[in-house]
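pinning this so it doesn't scroll away 📌
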Amino acid sequence: MSIIDQIRDKTAVGDMNTVAELTNQAIADGIAPDDIIQHGLIEAMTIVGDKFKKNEIYVPEMLIAARAMKTALGILKPLMVGQEAKRLAKVVIGTVKGDLHDIGKNLVSIMMEGAGIEVMDLGVDVAPEKFLEAIKAHQPQFLAMSALLTTTMPNLKTTIDVVAEAGVDQNLKVLIGGAPVTQKFADEIGADGYADNAATAVDAIKALL
């Protein structure tokens, strides 16, 4: 089994220490950081996402795998100054104004990063104007928002309206999610996509690309 395959398999099961050792060994062997990311780490998180969707693993296992992935990325990033890894897409993400829940959003961010997506995480309680500022600054292809309370769901629509009125990017796609959010609600407020968990959020982005 190649060292990149080992990195993939050990990342998928969350063996952080072995992943770190293998990553350093791969670098010493002259393997390009981008190859390690694309064929080791991203493939590992694809496996993790598939297992999560099939209920073969749950949130704790996903978080352990993500920790192993981030350990490897921490080793690789200093070697990539001046060369960007190939990015699938760029996303601005946050929980809407009035909502302080972040576990779901954090999981989505982790799975997006694991799929090779560049993520700008604005945190929680994000006002529409702050989303708009980030879109202007980072020019992402996607805006991803979550609401975990029925009382904050209207702020998903408010943000979509504010961004649309500003006319910053006609090609920007909006994804929404959160416990009370449904596909029907996404359609009603003009969102481009809806995801009910972290793994399907990545699928939604790939489908819209």
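📌 and the second one:
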Amino acid sequence: MIWPWILGAVVVLIVFLACSSMQCRFTVVRKQQDDEIVVDLHTMYGLVKQRIAIPVIKFLNLQEGVNLKTEVVNKSNNQLMQGKQSNITHHTIKEAFNNFQLLLAHCFEFNSWFRETLRHVRCTEFYWKSNVGIGDAAETAMTAGMVWGLKSSILGYLFRFVQLETRPVIQVVPQYNMVTFSSEIQVLAKIRVYEIILALCRLLFRIMKVKGGLRMWRKVLFKAS
């Protein structure tokens, strides 16, 4: 019979794909008034490649907030899958915060689950360069030192939870006698697909431990979408 062979092949394929890694390359560039955020996702041994880009981040005013242009691109054929513009205002930030509080309240020890999940994330590339200048040479040197200390504190806290498998490249370049600030961050993080699946199952179990948790998560997530 051929069915056992087909079933076996399907099982082997599922295990093969589950053992693959999801790679996420996160790039943030800030130069003067220009900002760009790019997230590249690769998984299933390169069969799935997507890019989420925010090429336009423009502050409008206090009333309208920040305008974002978002693009989702299939990197396999460079085809634009989705593009939209949206505004982040004080109202949307407040609503997102309230929704997040609701999700936390309807999940058993969410912070514990989050830290446990981060332990399976491996950082294999980290680059963070900043150019700082505030006009005066002495004040620029002092500011560069403060930026360096802030970076060190942030990374020291972050890598308490994420596995660091590379030597991070951190640079702070003082730009004397000029007023400028630019920064570029590149991070490559990896996690196994089966670890994501297990994490989602553990999250679902924690949500179901709270009365009305599943109903509330479904309500908030569907409303946000």
